[in-house]
Amino acid sequence: MRTHLIISSLALAAATGAASAQEACSTYEIQRGDSLRELAIQVYSTEDYRIIYDANRDVIGSNPNIIRVGDVLEFPCLEDVGRAIPQGDTEAERMAAEMAAELVKAAEARAEQAIADAEARVAAAEAEAKKTSEEAVIAAKAEAKKEIEAARAEGAALIRNATSGERPEIRDRQLLLITGGNYAPFTDEALPHRGLYTQLVETAMFRAAPEQAYKIQFVNDWSSHLDLLMPTLAFDATFPWSRPNCEEAEALSEKDRVRCETYNFSNPFYEVVDTFFAKEGSGYEETLTYADFAGTTICRPEGWSLSHMDAVGLYEPAITMLRPVEPDECFHAVMDGRADIVAIEAHLAVEAISRLGYEHQIIENPNLAAVKSLNVMTHKDNPDGEAILETLNQGLAIMQQSGEWRDIVSTALRHQMENG
Asked: For labeling, which of 7, 27, 182, 256 is most exposed (least CB within 10 Å)?
């Protein structure tokens, strides 16, 4: 049996040019260091990897963040997916992007060369130590360590400046961020680092603004974040929340329209699969069309965006919505007949179904899933809101550039798989 290496599909590719020879209307075997985003850029000139993911759900599975070395992907033809290759809006924007990319490469090369030079001096000192003394080695290592750290810091600063410009100013005070628990593997005080998403946010803040004081508070009543705590500016930011399709506000529910009008969003820190779960044998767990959900009661926790459901006609009165505060209540509702379907994020569902003892009784429908981003939100009335998001976006870019994002995600997902 072939052993598969699991890698994060949203991380930056570690192997240069892994997808450089690929093209639409072809197949491709996943190599070490590949990512769906990088493959989409190489093949379709867009970061929207859903073109590839939608065509390969059976191979990739329900989590687009995980791909396996050795699996073979189909790259659909553009006419089959109905998408044209996007171009830059203006020549100036294209030139700016190219210049930023060149600055990033130069920063990386400079940092790598400085590190290599310092490490070479350590090796030379160790060889010379055979003829001199152990103290010389210790001194050389200490000096090299300083140079390595300085080179890394300089490289990170150059990358940050190249990709994002000057860092925005945040007022000299402690920032207060709010999240909630019972959302494994992303946020929960019992998880390592208080959850995958919490660790990503904290690391991004540290990478972009290590001098910035902040505190993350857990309030498990998720709906109170948007109904009370954020509107009163008691907190500066909340996470993780999905961003509705604000560009098509007329198609959104009232709550999603309010979210678009009231909040600003960070860049996506993570993408999840939002899907549907139903009782085995109900037929809803295997249907191929949303139309078959007409007349059903669909349970989705209060505060969760309905944008992907609105977009496909799943709104009242075509269906009946059940909106409990706790996600667990949705699964209980399906089991006792109060609801037919649970509409929820796949990671959370798998954990909840196992914990509640509903395995093999509540089943995922793999045919009607949607990929959604998880973002940090700030209230538009917060004068520091945009600066906070800009800082977090800069930190996220540094993490993705260095590979730290991939390491954090891989470690957290491995812990989840090993510990349920």
From this structure: 27
